[in-house]
């Protein structure tokens, strides 16, 4: 009878630590967030933090794992609907913007350039790479569907990395400008320009008549 309540209290304490640590690390970065800060904010003693996670690195890895699971579960399927490239691109950008707005902390933890410092342990760095790789895979698959690039994965990869860099820049900007938003209009223009650079023509845009095809080049 007493074991279940104790487990419930332990789960609540763990969640409270992760909620607080995630907020602080997203706001200040990994290096500037200390165990004492997390303890003071969540109202639990430092010993409780160490008991649950072992170290600050352990907390960070758990924060990233939870953020990754939540964000990736919220992303739509990579098969983007739309009658043509322009429509599919609009749908994709709306999905990216929605994910950014729904999960600003998770995106900042993932993409913020200042989050992982040299003093973060190997497990934390590995989790960041795992997190980024998973999101990159989704973006690559989605943009491949948008532009019809299944035979040209290197182009889809370039477009995906560019998109994540734009999102990452906005995440970093939020440390200085909390109201900064992901500018999907300029991102749309840039993605179309990059696609055109690789010979991908998009029906429905000025001066272009093909859809998702490549021209000799």
TrEMBL record:
Gene3D superfamilies documented for this protein: Tetracycline Repressor, domain 2
InterPro entries in the record: Homeodomain-like_sf, HTH-type_TetR-like_transc_reg, HTH_TetR
Keyword Cell cycle appears in the UniProt entry: no
Stored SUPFAM superfamilies: Homeodomain-like
Keywords: DNA-binding, Transcription, Transcription regulation
Keyword Chloroplast: no
DNA-binding region coordinates: 34-53
Source domain of life: Bacteria
Occurrences of domain HTH tetR-type (ranges): 11-71
Protein name from the UniProt record: TetR/AcrR family transcriptional regulator
């Amino acid at each position: 009878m007493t074991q279940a309540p104790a487990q419930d209290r332990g789960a609540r304490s763990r969640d409270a630590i992760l909620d607080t640590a995630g907020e602080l690390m997203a706001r200040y970065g990994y290096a500037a967030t200390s165990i004492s800060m997390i303890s003071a904010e969540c109202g639990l003693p430092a010993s409780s933090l160490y008991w649950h996670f072992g170290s600050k690195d352990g907390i960070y890895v758990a924060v990233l794992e939870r953020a990754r699971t939540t964000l990736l579960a919220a992303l739509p399927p990579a098969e983007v609907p739309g009658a043509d490239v322009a429509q599919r691109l609009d749908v994709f950008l709306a999905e990216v913007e929605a994910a950014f707005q729904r999960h600003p902390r998770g995106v900042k933890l993932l993409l913020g350039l200042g989050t992982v410092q040299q003093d973060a342990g190997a497990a934390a760095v590995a989790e960041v790479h795992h997190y980024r790789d998973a999101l990159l895979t989704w973006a690559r698959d989605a943009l491949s569907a948008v532009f019809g690039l299944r035979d040209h994965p290197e182009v889809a990869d370039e477009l995906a990395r560019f998109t994540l860099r734009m999102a990452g820049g906005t995440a970093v900007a939020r440390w200085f400008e909390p109201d900064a938003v992901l500018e999907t209009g300029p991102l749309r223009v840039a993605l179309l320009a990059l696609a055109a650079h690789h010979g991908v023509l998009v029906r429905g845009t000025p001066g272009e008549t093909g859809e998702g095809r490549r021209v000799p080049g």
